[in-house]
Design a protein that fits this description.
- The chain has one domain: tt1808, chain A (Alpha-Beta Complex).
- It is built from 3 helices and 13 strands.
- A hairpin with a 2-residue loop joins strand 1 and strand 2.
- The longest helix is centred in the first third of the chain and has 21 residues.
- It starts with about 25 loop residues before the first helix and ends in a 5-residue tail after the last strand.
- About 25% of the residues are buried.
């Protein structure tokens, strides 16, 4: 009989062994991690994104959500969401969770795995943290555009800038003294960049 108090011996994982890709349904049923990190499903694998956000990240996020929410009440018929899962792809299964999602029209998540939104938000907003790597951000931006995003905003508390990226590869950088606006997609929206930091 096996001794229940004996330590479990772990078998080394060979370099050519890879875990089976997760499906959207499996990811939707997975437990919330207790390690203080956020995870996303990227091409069938759970990927650590970042630790729980700090003050500067939270300040930028809440300020933008408030300003965008007021704009949406006056000009739009969609919704502004904090971190919410977006189904980017079924195969390979990919769920991204932008820091802020701007949906120009309301979408139903009824019947979707995890109650997530299908497709990218019209505007996906990512607020950089010290743990973000350039390659990871390029991959996220590419995923958002491939899934139909009109814009991706990158908010950088360290440089105190906001970069608006477009699907055609062009971008506009707004600095602390600038007024952030994107009239083609969010007509009537504006906020002083300095307010975000």
């Amino acid at each position: 009989m096996k001794d229940a108090t004996a330590p479990t011996r772990l078998r080394p994982v060979r370099y050519d062994e890879r875990p089976q890709p997760m499906t959207l349904e499996e990811y939707a049923k997975s437990d919330e991690p207790e390690d203080g990190y956020r995870y996303e499903l990227v091409r069938g694998q759970m990927v650590v994104q970042e630790p729980v956000a700090g003050y500067s990240h939270g300040h930028s996020q809440s300020t933008l959500i408030q300003r965008l929410g007021k704009w949406m009440e006056a000009f739009g018929e969609g919704t502004i969401l904090g971190p919410t899962g977006c189904i980017i792809s079924d195969s390979p299964a990919t769920v991204r969770g932008p820091d802020i999602s701007v949906l120009l029209r309301r979408r139903s998540s009824e019947g979707e795995p995890g109650n997530w939104i299908r497709g990218a938000p019209d505007v996906a907003i990512e607020i950089l943290s010290p743990s973000n790597r350039p390659g990871e951000m390029r991959e996220k931006i590419s995923d958002y555009f491939a899934a139909g995003a009109l814009r991706v905003w990158i908010v950088d508390p360290k440089t105190r800038t906001v970069t608006i990226r477009r699907a055609d590869g062009s971008e506009t950088i707004f600095r602390e003294a600038d007024r952030l606006e994107d009239p083609e997609v969010l007509p009537g929206f504006a906020v002083e960049v300095g307010e975000l930091f």
